[in-house]
Design a protein that fits this description.
There is one protein chain. The protein contains nine helices and nine strands. By secondary structure, it is of the alpha/beta class. Strands 1, 2, 3, 4, 5, 6, 7, 8 and 9 form a nine-stranded parallel sheet that branches. Helix 4 links the parallel strand 2 and strand 3.
Amino acid sequence: MKAVVVQKEDLRYNIEKIKEFAKTNMPDDNGNNVKIIAVVKCNGYGLDMVQYTKFLHDNGIDFFAVSDIEDAIKLRKEGIEDKILMLSSTAIEQEVKELVANNIIITIGSKEAAETVEKVGQELNKKIKVHLKIDTGFGRYGFIYSNREEIIKTIKPLQNIKIEGTFTHFSNAYYDDKYTKTQFNRFIDCIETLKMNEIETGILHVCNTSAFIKFPQMHLNAVRIGSAFTGRISFTNSM
């Protein structure tokens, strides 16, 4: 029988190196350490999502992200009590209700999703924790960065959401430095517009694993780390 053998000491080494790099390179504007959000999709990159998440938790990681509702709920059922962010945006009412019932942070990336979350919040008489997704050029999902009036018109009237974060996703941070910097600038400009219109943005996170390593100046308040945990690594800065 084939089996995946996880070298826990190597995994622990990577966790500590990532925490050190986040701490020493670019604290946020308030002098706080950059928050690490561990992305545990794809069955924990093949390491078994539940066991992998528990190992990360035991080594000081307390914020996780998944890409589908089944994984989010499975982590809750397996006893994971830390923050969990659902990275995909959904406008399906039943899915929103399931996510709220399991205390999962919901991503809002469209007018339809915003309206659905607001409706559920009204029915439950509670503020639902969300992150906003801004599409700066990846084209997967999210509010288009240039449609700022639409974002403001959609988000500002909502009374039953609590924005805990705002993020984007780089399309090719590993290979395309120029476009990554363009996406970053688009995101920052969009954030400034939202703040000028008195829309709370919460913690800001744009860096995936590649951008985390290559662009420490883009760490902002939090970073999303996935594959960097799973192989022995070293860090160099690219400014």
